[in-house]
Amino acid sequence: MTNDGSTADGSLLLDEQLCFALYAAQRAVTAAYRPLLDELGLTYPQYLVLLVLWERGETTVKELAAALRLDYGTMSPLLKRLEAAGLVRRERAPRDERSVLVACTGRGEELRGRAGRVPGALLASTGLEPAEVARLREELWGLAERAHPAADRPARPPR
Among 35, 51, 133, 141, which residue is least crowded by beta carbons within 10 Å? Predict the structure, then answer.
């Protein structure tokens, strides 16, 4: 190891770690969402669940977990809280009792209109132009694809 923290395999300096830059950016972006989502009475993970349901409509817990890249153990308490808030409903699938369907309630659908201002408000708070956001999103999805083991690689969301 050299005095600057580098090794033959790369740097051990914190600010040169890709993982730390991603972590810091994720925390900053999530913090920027917080006041916008507080107005809606949602946490960031709850907002993500609703985004999937608004886009796809009724879906299974398994499909929802796959879309959000979350495990079932994380989904269950998240859905319980959304259900307790009256925003989603869960029910067994009529054709397969092992499968649980999730859908927005009327109240959850009404929230969609109020949530429509969140993306623009977040964009304004970052000062990024739409083209910059698109480029950054593409780069991050590309990184996610390359960093994830091929066998476990989830499908990339459609553009």
Answer: 35
Task: Select from 73, 74, 52 the least CA-distant residue to 64.
Answer: 52
Quick one: which H or E segment has residue 143? helix 130-147
User: What are 143-150's contacts with CB under 8 Å, separation 24+?
Assistant: none
pTM: 0.84
**Residue 49 · residue 81 · CB < 8 Å:** no
- Does the domain at 14-148 match CATH 3.20.20.140? Answer given as no
**How far apart are alpha carbons 129 and 136 in whole angstroms?**
11
* H helix intervals, 39-129: 44-56, 61-68, 72-84, 106-115, 118-126
pLDDT in tens, 52-88: 999 999 999 999 999 999 998 899 999 999 999 999 9
Contact 36, 122 (CB under 8 A): yes
- Count, residues in the chain: 159
Give the orientation angle of helix 106-115 with respect to helix 44-56, to 10 degrees: 110
Contacts of 30 (CB under 8 A, 6+ apart): 44
Tokens of 45: 């993970």
The domains of the chain are located at 14-148
